[in-house]
Amino acid sequence: MTQAPASPPPSRRRHDREIIALAVPAFGALVAEPLFVMVDSAIVGHLGTPQLAGLAVAAALLTTAVSIFVFLAYATTAAVARRVGAGDLTSAIRQGMDGIWLAILLGLAVIALTLPLAPWLVEVFGASDTAAPYATTYLRISSLGIPAMLVVMAATGVLRGLQNTRTPLYVAIGGFAANGALNAGLVYGAGLGIAGSAWGTVIAQISMAVAYLIVVVRGARRHGASLRPDAAGIRASAQAGVPLLVRTLSLRAVLLIATAVAARLGDTDIAAHQIILSLWSLMAFALDAIAIAGQAIIGRYLGAADTKGAREACHRMVQWGVASGVVFGVLIVLARPLFVPLFTSDQSVQDTLFPALLVVALTQPIAGVVFVLDGVLMGAGDGPYLAWAMLVTLAVFAPVALLTPTLGGGLTALWCAMTLMMVVRMATLWLRTRSGKWLVTGAAR
After folding, report:
1. Where, by residue number, does the polypeptide cross the bilayer (predicted)?
2. What is the DSSP string of 298-312?
3. Which domain holds residue 223?
4. Is the confidence at residue 151, as pLDDT, over 60?
5. DSSP 228
6. Model pTM?
C-alpha cells in the first residue's frame, strides 16, 4: 500500500500562515508606492518635455530625501512588535506615537531646508534651463507633503508591529486612486499644470497620513495610551533609528556608485543598466515583503521571550526567501525575450543587457536570503550590527565597481560586482544569525 506523504509539522504550517498573512498585503502596499510617481509622470508627460524633465529631477530629490528616513518604519515595527509579544499593547502604541512625533519633527525640518534651497538643489542635479523652473515649482510644493509622507512611514511601522499589514494596503490603494484623480483634475481640469500635479500628490499624502492617524489614535484611546509627545521617547526612537540610517545611506551609496560606473561605460550600458535596475527593484519589493513579515514576527517572538519560535520562524523565512529567489530567477530567464522589448527596441541595448540579466537571475536566491535575514535582524532590533555590516559591504564593493571600466567586462562585470556585494551582505548576515547574539528577549532591547 502506498504511504501518504507526511504532512508539514504544525509549527511550519503556523509560520507559513503568519508569513503569508503579513507578506502578501505588505507586497501590495510596497508596489503601490512607486505607482505614485508613475501616475505623475504619465499625467505631466502630456504637458511637454520640459515639464516632464522637471518632474524627473524633483521626484529624484524627493525620493532620495524620503527614503533616507525609511528607518521610521523599520525601527518602529521592531519596537512595537516586541511590546506586542510582551503583552503590553498600551506601551506598544505609546512607542508607536513616539515614532510618529519624530516623523513630524523630521518632516518640518526637511521643509525648512527644502523651500529656500530648492533652486540650488535643482541646479546641482543638473536640470536644464528650461526644466529648472518646473522642477523648482514641483519640489517646493511637494516638500509640503513630506511630513505626511514620514508620518505614513512611521504609522505603517506601528501597524506592522501590531501584526497588521492589511490596513497599510487599503490606505495605499486609496491614496493611489486619490492621487490619480486629483492630478488629472488639477493639472487639466483646473489648468494648474505641473503645480497641480504637485498639489494633488500633497493632498493625497496628507489624506493617507490622516487615515493612519485615525487608526492609531483609536487604538491609543482603546488601550489608554497617551498621545502627547514625550521627549525621552522621541529621543529613544531617534537613537534606535541612527544605525538604520547609516545602513540605508550605505546601501544608497552602493546603488549610486553602480549607476555612476554604468554611466562611464557609455550610453548603451547606462540604458541597459537602468532597465536591469528597474527589474531588480521590482523583485526587491517582493522579497522585501517577506522581510517585513520577518520584522513583525521576530520582534513579537523576542518580546514574548520565545527564542525557539524566533529561530524556527527565521529558518522558515529563509526557506521562503530562497524559494522565491529561485522562482524569480527562472522567470527572468524564461520571460526576458518578452519583457525586454517592452523597455527598448535598440538591439545594441538588448545585446548588452542579456548577459548581465543572466547574472541577476542566477543571484536571486542569494538576494532572497539577504532580504530575509536583513528583516530578521531589524525585527530583533540589531541595528548597530546592520550598520557595520553594510559599511563593510560598501568598503568591499566600491573599489571593485570603480575598477570595472579599467578592467573591462562592461555592464556584465559591473553586475558581477553587484553580486559580490550581495554575497558579502549574505555572509555578514548569516554569521550574525548563526551566532545567536541577536536573540535578545524582552519588551525593549
Report:
1. 20-39, 51-80, 100-121, 141-162, 169-191, 197-217, 244-263, 275-299, 320-340, 352-373, 385-404, 410-431
2. HHHHHHTT-HHHHHH
3. 20-229
4. yes
5. S
6. 0.85
